[in-house]
Amino acid sequence: RFRELSKEYAQLLPLVTSFQQQQQLQKDIEAATLLAQDTDEDMRAMAEEELKRGQVELEKVEQELQTLPTW
């Protein structure tokens, strides 16, 4: 029984990890969106860079999630 559960855990781990990354990236994008509205020009520029990076990473993770097997 332990082997079965270990195998199942190993199969689910990539899915769980990618899902957690997706959740964190969505939070980061939300925070960057708020910062992009700041009155400080430097903060806005930094937030916009972070927003672009986050969106690119989120797209990668979402593509990865679509290719992972689901049981």
Report on this model:
- It is a single chain.
- The protein has 71 residues and is mainly α.
- It has two helices and no strands.
- It has helices at 2-35, 41-67.
- Helix 1 packs antiparallel against helix 2.
- The longest helix has 34 residues, at 2-35.
- It starts with a helix and ends with a helix.
- The model has no long low-confidence stretch (mean pLDDT 94).
Write the layout of secondary structure elements.
Elements (H helix, E strand, L loop, with lengths): L1 H34 L5 H27 L4
Helix pairs in contact: 1-2
Q: Features of this protein?
A:
single chain; mainly alpha; 2 helices
Short description:
This protein is mainly α. It has helices at 2-35, 41-67. It has two helices and no strands.
Strand content: under 5%
The proportion of residues forming helix, as a percent range, comes to: over 70%
Unreliable segments (pLDDT under 50, ≥5 consecutive)? Answer: none
**Structural class of the secondary elements?**
mainly alpha
**Coarse morphology:** elongated
| Average of per-residue pLDDT values | 94
Radius of gyration: 17 Å
Helices and strands, in order, run as: HH
Largest sheet, in brief, is: none
Count of helical regions: 2
> Care to count the β-strands?
0
> What's the N-to-C terminus distance?
18 Å
